[in-house]
Amino acid sequence: MGIVHTKSNLENLIFQNQRILLLQGPIGSFFKSFGDWLRLNHQKTVFKLNFNYGDEVYYPLSTGDTFAYRDTYQAFPDFLTQFITENEIDAIVCFGDTRPYHIVAKQVVEKLGLSFWAFEEGYFRPAYVTLEQDGVNAFSPIPREASFFTEQFSTLKQQNYQDPPAIKGGFVPMAKCAIRYYWAKNSKHKRYPHYIHHRCSSIPNYIRSWAISGVKRAAYMFKDRKFSQEIQSGKYGKFYILPLQVFNDSQVRIHSDFSSVQNFLLHVLASFATHAPDGINLIVKHHPMDRGFTDYRKTINRFIRQHPKLKGRVFYVHDAPLPVFLRHGIGMVTLNSTSGLSALIHDMPVKVLGRANYDISGITFQGSLAEFWKKPTPPAPDLFHAYRMYHINTTQINGSFYSTVNFPKISNSAPQNHACIEKTMLSSPMQTHCRLESLTYAPIHKASTHHSEAKSLHSVSIRNIHNGPK
Known about the structure:
By secondary structure, the protein is an alpha/beta fold. It has 17 helices and 15 strands. It has helices at 9-16, 30-42, 53-58, 76-87, 100-112, 146-152, 171-187, 203-233, 250-253, 261-275, 297-306, 322-328, 339-345, 369-374, 381-394, 429-433, 452-455; strands at 19-22, 45-50, 66-69, 91-95, 115-121, 128-133, 239-243, 281-285, 314-317, 331-334, 350-352, 396-398, 404-408, 421-425, 465-466.
Protein backbone atom coordinates (compact mmCIF):
# COMPACT_ATOMS: atom_id res chain seq x y z
CA MET A 1 0.00 0.00 0.00
CA GLY A 2 1.40 3.39 -0.99
CA ILE A 3 1.93 6.41 1.22
CA VAL A 4 -1.25 8.22 2.25
CA HIS A 5 -0.46 11.85 1.49
CA THR A 6 -1.46 14.62 3.85
CA LYS A 7 -4.45 16.47 2.42
CA SER A 8 -4.48 20.23 2.07
CA ASN A 9 -6.92 22.24 4.15
CA LEU A 10 -8.79 23.16 0.99
CA GLU A 11 -9.21 19.46 0.17
CA ASN A 12 -10.49 18.78 3.68
CA LEU A 13 -12.97 21.64 3.40
CA ILE A 14 -14.26 20.22 0.11
CA PHE A 15 -14.39 16.55 1.15
CA GLN A 16 -15.92 17.06 4.60
CA ASN A 17 -18.65 19.63 3.96
CA GLN A 18 -21.59 20.11 1.61
CA ARG A 19 -23.47 23.17 2.91
CA ILE A 20 -21.09 26.06 3.53
CA LEU A 21 -21.79 29.49 5.03
CA LEU A 22 -19.49 32.38 4.10
CA LEU A 23 -19.24 35.34 6.47
CA GLN A 24 -17.04 38.38 5.77
CA GLY A 25 -14.24 37.97 3.26
CA PRO A 26 -11.29 40.19 2.35
CA ILE A 27 -12.17 43.45 0.63
CA GLY A 28 -12.81 42.80 -3.03
CA SER A 29 -14.46 40.02 -4.96
CA PHE A 30 -12.52 37.00 -3.70
CA PHE A 31 -15.37 35.54 -1.65
CA LYS A 32 -17.81 35.89 -4.53
CA SER A 33 -15.42 34.02 -6.80
CA PHE A 34 -14.71 31.46 -4.08
CA GLY A 35 -18.42 30.86 -3.58
CA ASP A 36 -18.91 30.43 -7.33
CA TRP A 37 -15.97 28.00 -7.44
CA LEU A 38 -17.50 25.92 -4.65
CA ARG A 39 -20.86 25.81 -6.42
CA LEU A 40 -19.73 25.22 -9.98
CA ASN A 41 -16.65 23.04 -9.47
CA HIS A 42 -17.70 21.10 -6.41
CA GLN A 43 -21.51 21.28 -6.35
CA LYS A 44 -21.62 22.78 -2.87
CA THR A 45 -24.59 24.69 -1.50
CA VAL A 46 -23.14 28.05 -0.52
CA PHE A 47 -24.79 30.62 1.75
CA LYS A 48 -23.50 34.14 2.40
CA LEU A 49 -24.19 36.69 5.12
CA ASN A 50 -23.46 40.35 4.42
CA PHE A 51 -22.93 42.67 7.38
CA ASN A 52 -22.55 46.05 5.64
CA TYR A 53 -23.06 47.55 2.21
CA GLY A 54 -19.38 47.11 1.36
CA ASP A 55 -19.90 43.36 1.73
CA GLU A 56 -23.00 43.65 -0.45
CA VAL A 57 -21.24 45.51 -3.26
CA TYR A 58 -18.78 42.65 -3.72
CA TYR A 59 -21.26 39.85 -2.95
CA PRO A 60 -24.67 41.06 -4.24
CA LEU A 61 -27.89 39.99 -2.59
CA SER A 62 -29.05 38.85 -6.02
CA THR A 63 -26.72 35.87 -5.61
CA GLY A 64 -28.56 32.75 -4.50
CA ASP A 65 -28.79 32.11 -0.74
CA THR A 66 -27.25 35.49 0.10
CA PHE A 67 -28.68 37.49 2.98
CA ALA A 68 -28.14 40.77 4.83
CA TYR A 69 -27.77 40.69 8.60
CA ARG A 70 -29.07 43.98 10.03
CA ASP A 71 -29.74 43.18 13.67
CA THR A 72 -27.52 44.05 16.62
CA TYR A 73 -24.21 42.45 17.47
CA GLN A 74 -25.74 41.20 20.73
CA ALA A 75 -28.44 39.32 18.78
CA PHE A 76 -25.97 37.66 16.42
CA PRO A 77 -25.19 34.50 18.46
CA ASP A 78 -28.85 33.44 18.67
CA PHE A 79 -29.48 34.44 15.07
CA LEU A 80 -26.48 32.49 13.79
CA THR A 81 -27.43 29.41 15.80
CA GLN A 82 -30.90 29.45 14.29
CA PHE A 83 -29.62 30.16 10.78
CA ILE A 84 -27.21 27.24 10.97
CA THR A 85 -29.89 24.90 12.30
CA GLU A 86 -32.57 25.86 9.78
CA ASN A 87 -30.19 25.65 6.82
CA GLU A 88 -28.30 22.55 7.98
CA ILE A 89 -24.93 24.29 7.64
CA ASP A 90 -21.87 22.04 7.81
CA ALA A 91 -19.08 24.63 7.89
CA ILE A 92 -18.46 28.35 8.27
CA VAL A 93 -15.72 30.11 6.29
CA CYS A 94 -14.52 33.66 6.94
CA PHE A 95 -11.52 35.96 6.48
CA GLY A 96 -9.64 36.51 9.72
CA ASP A 97 -10.64 34.94 13.02
CA THR A 98 -10.45 38.02 15.24
CA ARG A 99 -13.22 40.18 13.78
CA PRO A 100 -16.14 40.63 16.23
CA TYR A 101 -18.67 38.59 14.23
CA HIS A 102 -16.14 35.88 13.46
CA ILE A 103 -15.24 35.45 17.12
CA VAL A 104 -18.93 34.86 17.84
CA ALA A 105 -19.21 32.51 14.86
CA LYS A 106 -16.33 30.37 16.11
CA GLN A 107 -17.96 30.08 19.53
CA VAL A 108 -21.30 29.08 18.00
CA VAL A 109 -19.64 26.56 15.69
CA GLU A 110 -17.79 24.94 18.59
CA LYS A 111 -21.04 24.53 20.53
CA LEU A 112 -22.81 22.99 17.54
CA GLY A 113 -19.92 20.72 16.59
CA LEU A 114 -19.43 22.13 13.10
CA SER A 115 -16.18 23.14 11.39
CA PHE A 116 -14.77 26.68 11.33
CA TRP A 117 -12.40 27.78 8.56
CA ALA A 118 -10.49 31.04 8.24
CA PHE A 119 -8.67 32.59 5.32
CA GLU A 120 -5.78 34.94 6.05
CA GLU A 121 -3.02 36.70 4.17
CA GLY A 122 -0.32 34.24 3.20
CA TYR A 123 2.16 33.08 5.79
CA PHE A 124 4.68 32.87 2.93
CA ARG A 125 3.50 35.97 1.11
CA PRO A 126 3.34 37.56 -1.40
CA ALA A 127 2.69 34.48 -3.55
CA TYR A 128 0.26 32.73 -1.19
CA VAL A 129 -2.95 33.11 0.80
CA THR A 130 -3.70 31.03 3.90
CA LEU A 131 -6.59 28.71 4.79
CA GLU A 132 -6.71 26.98 8.17
CA GLN A 133 -9.31 25.12 10.20
CA ASP A 134 -10.14 26.40 13.70
CA GLY A 135 -7.89 29.46 13.51
CA VAL A 136 -4.99 31.28 11.89
CA ASN A 137 -1.72 32.85 13.06
CA ALA A 138 -1.25 32.13 16.78
CA PHE A 139 -4.72 30.53 16.89
CA SER A 140 -3.59 27.89 14.41
CA PRO A 141 -4.20 24.37 15.79
CA ILE A 142 -1.00 23.03 14.20
CA PRO A 143 1.35 21.76 16.95
CA ARG A 144 4.32 23.93 17.94
CA GLU A 145 6.55 20.89 18.18
CA ALA A 146 9.51 20.15 15.93
CA SER A 147 8.74 16.43 15.90
CA PHE A 148 5.35 17.03 14.30
CA PHE A 149 6.86 18.56 11.16
CA THR A 150 9.69 16.07 10.81
CA GLU A 151 7.25 13.17 11.16
CA GLN A 152 4.78 14.67 8.68
CA PHE A 153 7.40 15.41 6.04
CA SER A 154 7.34 11.94 4.46
CA THR A 155 3.57 12.24 3.88
CA LEU A 156 3.78 15.46 1.86
CA LYS A 157 3.10 15.37 -1.86
CA GLN A 158 5.58 18.15 -2.58
CA GLN A 159 8.80 17.81 -0.60
CA ASN A 160 11.13 20.06 -2.60
CA TYR A 161 10.43 23.75 -2.67
CA GLN A 162 9.71 25.31 -6.05
CA ASP A 163 8.99 28.97 -6.66
CA PRO A 164 5.22 29.37 -7.16
CA PRO A 165 3.74 31.18 -10.17
CA ALA A 166 4.19 34.93 -9.88
CA ILE A 167 1.09 36.80 -8.74
CA LYS A 168 0.15 40.32 -9.72
CA GLY A 169 -0.98 42.41 -6.82
CA GLY A 170 0.49 44.99 -4.53
CA PHE A 171 -0.78 48.09 -2.79
CA VAL A 172 -2.62 49.83 -5.64
CA PRO A 173 -5.29 47.20 -6.45
CA MET A 174 -5.90 46.62 -2.75
CA ALA A 175 -6.21 50.37 -2.11
CA LYS A 176 -8.71 50.76 -4.94
CA CYS A 177 -10.80 47.91 -3.58
CA ALA A 178 -10.61 49.40 -0.08
CA ILE A 179 -11.81 52.80 -1.25
CA ARG A 180 -14.78 51.27 -3.03
CA TYR A 181 -15.58 49.02 -0.08
CA TYR A 182 -15.39 51.71 2.59
CA TRP A 183 -17.21 54.28 0.47
CA ALA A 184 -20.07 51.81 0.08
CA LYS A 185 -20.04 50.81 3.75
CA ASN A 186 -20.08 54.38 5.02
CA SER A 187 -22.43 55.93 2.45
CA LYS A 188 -25.09 53.26 3.02
CA HIS A 189 -24.59 52.73 6.73
CA LYS A 190 -28.30 53.24 7.42
CA ARG A 191 -28.99 49.96 5.65
CA TYR A 192 -26.96 48.19 8.31
CA PRO A 193 -27.47 50.52 11.30
CA HIS A 194 -26.09 48.16 13.96
CA TYR A 195 -22.96 47.02 12.15
CA ILE A 196 -19.73 47.01 14.19
CA HIS A 197 -16.48 47.23 12.22
CA HIS A 198 -13.21 45.73 13.43
CA ARG A 199 -11.15 48.87 12.84
CA CYS A 200 -11.42 52.57 12.01
CA SER A 201 -12.99 52.90 8.56
CA SER A 202 -13.34 56.65 8.10
CA ILE A 203 -12.92 57.48 4.41
CA PRO A 204 -11.55 61.00 5.12
CA ASN A 205 -9.02 59.46 7.50
CA TYR A 206 -7.94 56.87 4.92
CA ILE A 207 -7.68 59.41 2.11
CA ARG A 208 -5.66 61.74 4.32
CA SER A 209 -3.37 58.94 5.49
CA TRP A 210 -2.82 57.56 1.98
CA ALA A 211 -2.05 61.07 0.73
CA ILE A 212 0.53 61.46 3.50
CA SER A 213 1.86 58.02 2.62
CA GLY A 214 2.36 59.02 -1.01
CA VAL A 215 4.19 62.20 -0.04
CA LYS A 216 6.41 60.35 2.42
CA ARG A 217 7.20 57.63 -0.09
CA ALA A 218 8.42 60.23 -2.56
CA ALA A 219 10.35 62.05 0.16
CA TYR A 220 12.08 58.89 1.43
CA MET A 221 12.76 57.35 -1.97
CA PHE A 222 16.25 58.73 -2.56
CA LYS A 223 17.31 58.40 1.07
CA ASP A 224 16.13 54.79 1.38
CA ARG A 225 17.69 53.82 -1.95
CA LYS A 226 21.00 55.23 -0.77
CA PHE A 227 20.62 53.43 2.56
CA SER A 228 20.08 50.12 0.74
CA GLN A 229 23.23 50.64 -1.27
CA GLU A 230 25.18 51.42 1.90
CA ILE A 231 23.87 48.23 3.53
CA GLN A 232 25.14 46.20 0.59
CA SER A 233 28.52 47.92 0.74
CA GLY A 234 28.90 46.95 4.40
CA LYS A 235 28.80 50.49 5.79
CA TYR A 236 26.64 49.52 8.77
CA GLY A 237 28.68 46.48 9.76
CA LYS A 238 26.92 43.87 11.85
CA PHE A 239 23.29 44.74 12.47
CA TYR A 240 19.97 43.38 13.65
CA ILE A 241 16.75 44.19 11.81
CA LEU A 242 13.60 45.17 13.70
CA PRO A 243 10.54 45.19 11.38
CA LEU A 244 7.56 47.04 12.82
CA GLN A 245 3.97 45.99 12.22
CA VAL A 246 0.87 48.00 11.36
CA PHE A 247 -0.28 49.92 14.43
CA ASN A 248 -3.77 48.34 14.51
CA ASP A 249 -2.76 44.84 13.41
CA SER A 250 -4.69 42.12 15.23
CA GLN A 251 -1.35 40.33 15.58
CA VAL A 252 -0.34 43.14 17.93
CA ARG A 253 -3.68 43.56 19.72
CA ILE A 254 -4.51 39.91 20.25
CA HIS A 255 -1.37 37.82 19.79
CA SER A 256 1.02 39.77 22.00
CA ASP A 257 1.22 41.19 25.50
CA PHE A 258 2.37 44.61 24.29
CA SER A 259 -0.23 47.39 24.37
CA SER A 260 1.06 48.96 21.15
CA VAL A 261 3.75 48.81 18.49
CA GLN A 262 5.40 51.81 20.15
CA ASN A 263 5.69 49.99 23.48
CA PHE A 264 7.15 46.98 21.68
CA LEU A 265 9.68 49.27 19.98
CA LEU A 266 10.68 50.88 23.28
CA HIS A 267 11.09 47.47 24.92
CA VAL A 268 13.45 46.31 22.18
CA LEU A 269 15.42 49.57 22.25
CA ALA A 270 15.85 49.30 26.02
CA SER A 271 17.11 45.73 25.75
CA PHE A 272 19.45 46.67 22.91
CA ALA A 273 20.87 49.58 24.91
CA THR A 274 21.50 47.35 27.93
CA HIS A 275 22.64 44.07 26.42
CA ALA A 276 23.82 44.44 22.82
CA PRO A 277 27.61 44.27 22.38
CA ASP A 278 29.42 47.42 21.30
CA GLY A 279 29.81 47.69 17.56
CA ILE A 280 26.46 46.03 16.83
CA ASN A 281 23.81 48.19 15.16
CA LEU A 282 20.01 48.07 15.03
CA ILE A 283 17.92 48.99 11.98
CA VAL A 284 14.25 49.73 12.64
CA LYS A 285 12.11 49.22 9.54
CA HIS A 286 8.73 50.92 9.31
CA HIS A 287 5.85 48.90 7.86
CA PRO A 288 5.09 50.14 4.31
CA MET A 289 1.31 49.95 4.87
CA ASP A 290 1.64 52.09 7.99
CA ARG A 291 3.61 54.89 6.37
CA GLY A 292 0.76 57.41 6.36
CA PHE A 293 -0.68 56.47 9.74
CA THR A 294 2.24 56.47 12.16
CA ASP A 295 5.81 57.69 12.48
CA TYR A 296 8.22 56.59 15.20
CA ARG A 297 11.11 58.91 14.40
CA LYS A 298 10.48 61.18 17.39
CA THR A 299 10.16 58.17 19.69
CA ILE A 300 13.46 56.74 18.48
CA ASN A 301 15.32 60.06 18.58
CA ARG A 302 14.06 60.75 22.10
CA PHE A 303 15.28 57.34 23.26
CA ILE A 304 18.70 57.90 21.69
CA ARG A 305 19.02 61.25 23.48
CA GLN A 306 18.30 59.45 26.74
CA HIS A 307 20.88 56.76 25.88
CA PRO A 308 23.80 58.61 24.23
CA LYS A 309 25.82 55.44 23.64
CA LEU A 310 23.24 54.47 20.97
CA LYS A 311 24.04 57.49 18.84
CA GLY A 312 25.12 56.28 15.41
CA ARG A 313 23.98 52.72 16.17
CA VAL A 314 20.19 52.87 15.67
CA PHE A 315 18.73 53.68 12.26
CA TYR A 316 15.14 54.16 11.09
CA VAL A 317 14.13 53.41 7.49
CA HIS A 318 10.87 53.18 5.59
CA ASP A 319 10.96 51.75 2.08
CA ALA A 320 14.31 50.04 1.78
CA PRO A 321 13.56 46.48 0.53
CA LEU A 322 13.45 43.89 3.30
CA PRO A 323 15.51 41.30 1.34
CA VAL A 324 18.49 43.67 1.43
CA PHE A 325 18.50 43.48 5.22
CA LEU A 326 17.87 39.74 5.26
CA ARG A 327 20.91 39.09 3.08
CA HIS A 328 23.27 41.20 5.18
CA GLY A 329 21.92 41.25 8.76
CA ILE A 330 22.88 38.95 11.63
CA GLY A 331 19.43 38.53 13.17
CA MET A 332 15.83 39.73 13.40
CA VAL A 333 13.70 40.69 16.37
CA THR A 334 9.97 40.64 15.67
CA LEU A 335 6.71 40.73 17.55
CA ASN A 336 5.13 38.02 15.38
CA SER A 337 5.35 39.36 11.84
CA THR A 338 5.48 37.07 8.81
CA SER A 339 8.71 38.95 8.11
CA GLY A 340 10.11 36.45 10.59
CA LEU A 341 9.38 33.66 8.13
CA SER A 342 11.14 35.62 5.39
CA ALA A 343 14.16 35.92 7.67
CA LEU A 344 14.13 32.19 8.38
CA ILE A 345 14.09 31.46 4.65
CA HIS A 346 17.35 33.43 4.52
CA ASP A 347 18.76 31.31 7.38
CA MET A 348 18.66 34.36 9.66
CA PRO A 349 18.29 33.92 13.43
CA VAL A 350 14.89 35.18 14.64
CA LYS A 351 13.66 36.13 18.11
CA VAL A 352 9.86 36.37 18.53
CA LEU A 353 8.46 38.49 21.38
CA GLY A 354 4.77 37.88 20.74
CA ARG A 355 2.89 34.69 19.91
CA ALA A 356 3.51 33.20 16.48
CA ASN A 357 2.77 29.81 14.95
CA TYR A 358 6.39 29.56 13.79
CA ASP A 359 7.90 30.22 17.23
CA ILE A 360 9.16 26.67 17.63
CA SER A 361 12.29 25.31 19.27
CA GLY A 362 14.85 24.62 16.57
CA ILE A 363 13.34 27.24 14.26
CA THR A 364 13.40 30.43 16.32
CA PHE A 365 15.66 31.49 19.19
CA GLN A 366 14.16 30.28 22.48
CA GLY A 367 16.42 32.13 24.91
CA SER A 368 15.90 35.66 26.24
CA LEU A 369 16.22 38.79 24.13
CA ALA A 370 19.27 39.76 26.18
CA GLU A 371 20.93 36.49 25.17
CA PHE A 372 19.87 36.88 21.54
CA TRP A 373 21.88 40.09 21.10
CA LYS A 374 25.04 38.22 22.11
CA LYS A 375 24.58 34.80 20.56
CA PRO A 376 21.90 34.54 17.86
CA THR A 377 21.23 31.00 16.65
CA PRO A 378 20.04 30.28 13.09
CA PRO A 379 17.22 27.81 12.38
CA ALA A 380 17.92 24.12 11.93
CA PRO A 381 17.80 23.87 8.10
CA ASP A 382 16.08 20.47 7.83
CA LEU A 383 13.50 21.35 10.45
CA PHE A 384 12.60 24.69 8.90
CA HIS A 385 12.38 23.06 5.48
CA ALA A 386 9.93 20.50 6.91
CA TYR A 387 7.93 23.31 8.53
CA ARG A 388 7.85 25.35 5.34
CA MET A 389 6.85 22.46 3.11
CA TYR A 390 4.14 21.33 5.52
CA HIS A 391 2.50 24.74 5.17
CA ILE A 392 3.03 24.90 1.41
CA ASN A 393 1.25 21.56 1.12
CA THR A 394 -1.57 22.21 3.58
CA THR A 395 -2.33 25.80 4.56
CA GLN A 396 -1.01 27.82 1.61
CA ILE A 397 -2.79 28.48 -1.71
CA ASN A 398 -0.95 30.22 -4.52
CA GLY A 399 -2.49 33.61 -5.22
CA SER A 400 -3.55 37.03 -4.02
CA PHE A 401 -6.97 38.02 -2.72
CA TYR A 402 -6.81 41.13 -4.90
CA SER A 403 -5.99 39.61 -8.30
CA THR A 404 -5.87 35.85 -8.91
CA VAL A 405 -5.94 32.70 -6.81
CA ASN A 406 -4.73 29.48 -8.40
CA PHE A 407 -6.93 26.90 -6.71
CA PRO A 408 -5.57 23.36 -7.01
CA LYS A 409 -7.68 21.05 -9.12
CA ILE A 410 -9.49 18.83 -6.63
CA SER A 411 -11.52 15.78 -7.55
CA ASN A 412 -14.95 15.60 -5.96
CA SER A 413 -14.34 11.97 -5.04
CA ALA A 414 -10.66 11.71 -4.11
CA PRO A 415 -7.66 14.02 -3.65
CA GLN A 416 -5.55 14.64 -6.74
CA ASN A 417 -2.01 15.84 -7.27
CA HIS A 418 -1.62 19.60 -6.93
CA ALA A 419 0.38 19.84 -10.14
CA CYS A 420 -2.80 20.67 -12.05
CA ILE A 421 -4.35 23.96 -11.00
CA GLU A 422 -7.50 25.87 -11.71
CA LYS A 423 -6.84 29.55 -12.15
CA THR A 424 -9.67 31.58 -10.69
CA MET A 425 -9.82 35.19 -11.73
CA LEU A 426 -11.21 37.03 -8.77
CA SER A 427 -13.26 39.58 -10.58
CA SER A 428 -14.47 41.08 -13.77
CA PRO A 429 -12.31 43.90 -15.21
CA MET A 430 -14.47 46.44 -13.43
CA GLN A 431 -14.03 44.71 -10.09
CA THR A 432 -10.32 44.03 -10.57
CA HIS A 433 -9.64 47.72 -10.87
CA CYS A 434 -12.34 48.58 -8.30
CA ARG A 435 -13.41 51.67 -10.16
CA LEU A 436 -15.42 54.17 -8.17
CA GLU A 437 -18.43 53.87 -10.40
CA SER A 438 -22.02 54.43 -9.34
CA LEU A 439 -23.15 51.67 -7.00
CA THR A 440 -26.56 50.32 -7.94
CA TYR A 441 -28.81 48.45 -5.55
CA ALA A 442 -28.88 44.72 -5.96
CA PRO A 443 -32.25 43.50 -7.20
CA ILE A 444 -34.47 41.87 -4.63
CA HIS A 445 -33.43 38.25 -4.28
CA LYS A 446 -35.88 35.48 -3.59
CA ALA A 447 -34.62 32.77 -1.29
CA SER A 448 -33.64 29.52 -2.92
CA THR A 449 -36.45 26.97 -3.07
CA HIS A 450 -34.08 24.06 -3.61
CA HIS A 451 -34.15 23.34 0.12
CA SER A 452 -37.31 23.63 2.17
CA GLU A 453 -35.48 24.97 5.20
CA ALA A 454 -34.34 28.06 3.27
CA LYS A 455 -37.94 29.24 2.99
CA SER A 456 -38.17 29.73 6.74
CA LEU A 457 -35.75 32.63 6.48
CA HIS A 458 -38.75 34.80 5.62
CA SER A 459 -40.47 34.00 8.90
CA VAL A 460 -40.33 36.31 11.89
CA SER A 461 -38.28 33.74 13.80
CA ILE A 462 -35.10 35.23 12.36
CA ARG A 463 -34.96 38.95 12.97
CA ASN A 464 -33.65 41.62 10.67
CA ILE A 465 -32.32 39.39 7.94
CA HIS A 466 -33.06 40.68 4.47
CA ASN A 467 -32.48 39.46 0.97
CA GLY A 468 -33.12 42.66 -0.89
CA PRO A 469 -32.75 46.45 -0.49
CA LYS A 470 -34.75 48.05 2.21
